[in-house]
Each structure stands twice: as structure tokens, then as C-alpha cells.
Amino acid sequence: MTVQSSQALVSHVDEALVKRARAGSSNAFEQLVRRHQAPLRAFLCRMVTEPSLADDLAQETFLKAWKALPRWRGTEGDGSSFRGWLFSIAINTARDQRRSLTRAQKRDTAWHAEQDQNTSTEAGMAARLDLDRILQALSPDQRLVVSLCFGAGLTHAEAAQALSMPLGTVKSHAQRGRDRALDLMRDLRPSAPTATLLVSESPKP
């Protein structure tokens, strides 16, 4: 049997099982699970780091497939198959999990950073006071531009948009405000943590 005929047979059997599963046969869907569980799990193991997570994702994939069976259009003579459709669900499920994990990691990182900040209250309060004094010493426009570009990380163009201010004016305020802040830092606390915050280059426009 050639590879093409073997794949055609697999697709034919899958379609017959899908038809029965759509009619309400849980046994037919269980057969689909048994037919594709091992290769699907092996694929997911390559997408994630933990085998137990691959098992969870495989179960979620089959659950989604079961719920979405009525919407599957079947093979259309273009090489599509139930297996291809099933793996597309697995890929999207793994990507969703990865995005959720990334968001959770960012929340954990932010929480730990906040805890670290709280453990050094004296240094943090001193730095905060210095930062406030420096910003108050700037002109109102310079204070806004410095806060946006060097504090919030906006580009010059984004700051210009936010402030409804010409781009050239924003660049001028950013440069002059930065220079003024540097002078004030040297007078206040040359080694203060705020120095790193304020003198770092803002994103380019």
C-alpha cells in the first residue's frame, strides 16, 4: 500500500467515525481519540516543556474537537482531513496556553518587583523624593515630556500625539529636560537610583 492510499484510508475511516460521532455516538468519538491520541500528544510534547502539560492540552484539544464537530466541513478535495483539523485545534490551544503562561509570568515578575521595592523603603522613599524634586524643578512642558519619554517609555512621536504638541518641540523639551535633570541629580544624589531612570535614552521617534 502506498503512502497516499494509506492516508486516504485513514481519512476515509475518520470521516465515517466523524459521521457517527455527529449523530451522537460517543463510542465513535472514543475511537477517533484512540486513533490520534498518541501522535497528537507527541506533537504537543514538542511544543511544551512538560509531558503532563501536553496531556492536559491533548485532553482540551479533544474536548474542543468534540464540541466543534458539527462545524467541521469535512474533506473538500484539497488535502484537508479530520487529522489536519484536529492538529490545528491543538496548535491554537497550545498557543493560547503559552500566552496565558506569559501573562502569568509577567504578573509574578511585577509582584516580586513590588515586594523587592517594599523591602527597601528607605532607599525607595529617598529616590522618590529626589525624583519629585527634580520633576518639579522642570518647566511644566519639560516635566510632561520627561515623564512620558523617560518615565513611561513613549517615543517622541507618541508623546507628541499624547500632548498634541509638535514633534520638534517634544524633542527639544526632552533634551533640555534631560540635561536639566542630570544637573539636578549631580547636586542631589549622584548615585541615586533615579539617575538610571531619568537619563536612559527614550525610544526613538
UniProtKB/TrEMBL annotation:
Annotated ranges, domain RNA polymerase sigma factor 70 region 4 type: 129-179
Domain spans labelled RNA polymerase sigma-70 region: 32-103
Transcription found in the keyword field: yes
Any GO BP annotation: DNA-templated transcription initiation
Keyword Mitochondrion: no
Example GO molecular function: DNA binding
Superkingdom as given in the UniProt entry: Bacteria
Keywords (A to Z) from UniProt: Sigma factor, Transcription, Transcription regulation
Similarity field: Belongs to the sigma-70 factor family. ECF subfamily.
Protein name in the entry: ECF RNA polymerase sigma-E factor
Gene: rpoE_2
